[in-house]
Design goal:
single chain; 402 residues; alpha/beta; 8-stranded mixed sheet
């Protein structure tokens, strides 16, 4: 059993979807049991969000965009679904678009786009792409099933970035696939709350869906199909001589991903990491390339450094003062205060003298983080034990991983 995930660029156009169908069919022909996870067609999720924003401010031009993405999906049906099956598929897809139109109209009327409504709105991309690819394979005579991930992946009600209930989810997945003989096509990115409301898994959500399913089924491998040849030693737009890494460890991949390499997103790796399931990153547009294998095995190479990556725009906040030297609990108070406000810290350094602690953050969080820290250490600052917080802007982080 292996799990294949196809990203938005892989299902973005008729020709790329043809390639995806060929990959799936080759696995079926070779008797390889597989589960397929699909993203929305390239760019559709962003378009859905933009339409929702327009509708919420009574901008009726969202209707023009809706017609355009409807035509984009109909083009795939016309090109890839057998003619005798097209009328039924068109009818079912039209029902989904009618539901989407009603939702946007509701947003337009109440002039509000809540996080909960946004999750439901964004779910249409995966629901449409997965259903259409399912019907393409079905019209080719393949034994396939369509699986709405909301039926098998349960989360909390933290809309926008829901937390998975793994106990219930693993049981649901195990029960669903126990005696399943067909190839399942699963909607990526989306899930459901205990109240059966649509939730989303956040950034990298479709990869996460694949990893969750693979871990629950103890799959042999996860294949992430995208538009690059794998993980590279550096960003090829910056470093001309960068090349694809044939293999890399989980920890190295997580570090490179955290520090700017956008091929995979670290939470994707967590369920696979726990089960030691290898991931293969492959290029839908370059099938001959072997890609990169990510596993728990750190293979020996002639090069101690696997890659160099960077985050181009960060702010550095410096907490320092003579009153910090030898005082227990300063770090604990600092990071507890930031954690209470859900602040994510990219990088931490502390002087060996304990005189200063430096934090690197996303610039958009820096002002709020400064306010939180000043509030936490108000008394120490008033008594001059800790100096005024200093923020340095327009910095970059360069990370060497190996």
């Amino acid at each position: 059993m292996k799990v294949l995930k196809f990203g938005g660029t892989s299902v973005g156009q008729v020709e790329s979807i043809k390639t995806v169908l060929g990959i799936i069919k080759n696995n079926i022909d070779s008797k390889q049991k597989q589960v397929i996870v699909l993203s929305a067609m390239g760019g559709v999720t962003n378009i859905l969000v933009e339409m929702g924003k327009k509708a919420s401010i009574s901008d009726e031009t969202y209707k023009i965009t809706l017609n355009l993405i409807e035509s984009k999906h109909y083009e795939v049906i016309t090109s890839l679904v057998e003619i005798k099956a097209q009328s039924k598929v068109f009818a079912n897809v039209k029902l989904i678009f009618n539901e989407l139109e009603d939702l946007l109209n509701g947003i337009y009327l109440i002039r509000e786009l809540s996080i909960r409504t946004l999750d439901l709105l964004m779910s249409f991309g995966e629901r449409l792409s997965t259903y259409i690819v399912f019907e393409c394979l079905k019209s080719m005579g393949e034994n396939v099933e369509f699986v709405d991930a909301r039926k098998i992946i349960t989360t909390d009600s933290n809309f926008g970035y829901a937390k998975v209930n793994f106990k219930e989810t693993n049981q649901n997945i195990s029960d669903h696939f126990k005696d399943n003989k067909s190839t399942s096509l699963v909607t990526g990115f989306i899930a459901a709350s205990p109240e059966n409301e649509t939730t989303t898994l956040g950034r990298g959500g479709s990869d996460y869906t694949a990893s969750i399913i693979a871990a629950a089924l103890s799959a042999e491998e996860i294949e992430i199909w995208t538009d690059v040849d794998g993980m590279m030693t550096a960003d090829p737009r910056i470093v001309e001589k960068a090349f694809t890494l044939p293999s890399i460890s989980y920890i190295e991949a997580m570090e490179l991903s955290h520090f700017g390499a956008k091929v995979i997103y670290p939470p994707t790796l967590q369920p696979a990491f726990a089960k030691k399931i290898p991931l293969s990153i492959k290029n839908t547009f370059n099938l001959a390339h072997p890609g990169t294998t990510v596993s728990d095995k750190n293979k020996k190479t002639d090069f101690p450094i696997k890659g160099i990556s960077s985050i181009p725009n960060v702010s550095l906040i410096n907490l320092h003062g003579s009153g910090m030297v030898g005082v227990a609990g300063v770090s604990g108070r600092l990071f507890s205060a930031l954690a209470r406000h859900k602040m994510s810290v990219i990088l931490i350094t502390q002087a060996s003298s304990e005189h200063s602690i430096c934090l690197a953050l996303d610039p958009k969080d820096a002002k709020e983080a400064t306010r939180i820290i000043e509030e936490e250490f108000e008394n120490e600052m008033a008594s001059k034990k800790i100096d005024k917080i200093v923020e340095i802007k327009d910095l970059s982080i360069i990370s060497i991983v190996g």
